[in-house]
Amino acid sequence: MTLPLIAILRGITPAEAPAIGTALVNAGITTIEVPLNSPDPLQSIAALSRHLGDTAIVGAGTVLSVADVNAVAQAGGQIIVSPNCNTEVIQATKALDLQSWPGVFTPTEAYAALDAGADGLKLFPGAMAGPTGLSAMRAILPKGTLVYAVGGAGPENFGDWIAASADGFGLGSALYKPGLNATEVGERATAIVAAYRTALG
After folding, report:
1. Is residue 106's pLDDT more than 90?
2. Catalytic hit among 33, 88, 109, 143
3. Which of 21, 53, 170, 194 is deepest in the core (most CB within 10 A)?
4. What is the annotated quaternary arrangement, including any partners (predicted)?
């Protein structure tokens, strides 16, 4: 089963990407985003896509423009994650048959994203909304809407978020920080997957 966990590899370099990607997949995390404010992000996305093949979904985070979407697609990316709700970015993503996960914080943004074709919503910053905020918003979202909590969601509070109806999580510094090697990232990923499974019951 593919776990609803997205690894956010902010700051990763192309040289280390394949080994770290392999460590994540081996631990059970098979969706990987490289934020575009990382060093040579398109090269890292291309390296991960080539190395991992169909064992993972690889793409970009911090995607802010249609030009970014096109560049990620050319690098082999399959998923586009943004911190904001830009309907042009969402529509360009879907026109290329990629997954679209825009950032939202309000019901207005959530509906704008869904109307534009988003596959799911990234509640961001999760720390500001909290599980209570998600629970309140869930009451007005269309049934079946996928919402991932990002920023302020992690092993220490997976249970609270799941109880508030979070469908999944984006994980950054708890999983990867520049300077960590593949073994260390693999150990963190294994612990996070175990915590998620425990929280899920």
Report:
1. yes
2. 33
3. 21
4. Homotrimer.
